[in-house]
């Protein structure tokens, strides 16, 4: 894969990205981490708030992969949550920018899988 034309290309071992508190050193493996961020229809939470865009990132032997799950209309919510569940099942650690309070409420409404 060729480096991007602009910006800087990160070339560093995965292990150097994990500077954790010593008590977590044996529990966290970057290859088991799923990085997630969402865009929602509102900040209030509850009924009427939907995660319409879910950004996912994870490390592979070849580099860092990004995926986006887009709900184009409300009838696609079940499909988005199904695909998100499939990605969550593959990883052991969830890494968020804003913490569980902003990510999970819109994504964790009851859904049958």
Mean pLDDT: 74
For the sheet with most strands, the description reads: 4 strands, mixed
CATH C-level class is Alpha Beta
Side by side, the strands of the main sheet go 3-2-1-4
Number of domains: 1
CATH topology call: Signal recognition particle alu RNA binding heterodimer, srp9/1
In angstroms, what is the radius of gyration? 16 Å
Shape-level CATH architecture = 2-Layer Sandwich
Question: Percent helix among the residues?
Answer: 10-25%
- Uncertain stretches of 5 or more adjacent residues: 3-7, 109-113
Which structural category fits the helices and strands? Answer: alpha+beta
**Could you say which overall geometry the principal axes of the C-alpha atoms support?**
elongated
Task: Please name the defining characteristics of this protein.
113 residues; alpha+beta; Signal recognition particle alu RNA binding heterodimer, srp9/1; 2 helices; 4 strands; elongated; disordered N terminus; disordered C terminus
Question: Your description of this structure?
Answer:
The structure is a single chain. Helices cover 19% and strands 27% of the residues. The chain has one domain: Signal recognition particle alu RNA binding heterodimer, srp9/1 (2-Layer Sandwich), CATH 3.30.720. Strands 3-2-1-4 form a four-stranded mixed β-sheet. With 113 residues, the chain is an alpha+beta fold.
């Amino acid at each position: 894969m060729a480096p991007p034309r602009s910006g800087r290309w990160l070339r560093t071992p995965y292990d150097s990205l994990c500077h954790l508190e010593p008590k977590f050193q044996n529990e966290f493996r970057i290859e088991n981490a799923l990085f997630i961020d969402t865009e929602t229809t509102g900040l209030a939470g509850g009924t009427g708030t939907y995660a319409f865009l879910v950004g996912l990132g994870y490390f592979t032997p070849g580099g860092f992969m990004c995926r986006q799950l887009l709900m184009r209309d409300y009838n696609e919510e079940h499909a988005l949550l199904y695909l998100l569940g499939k990605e969550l099942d593959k990883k052991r650690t969830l890494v968020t920018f804003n913490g569980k309070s902003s990510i999970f409420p819109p994504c964790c409404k009851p859904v049958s899988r």
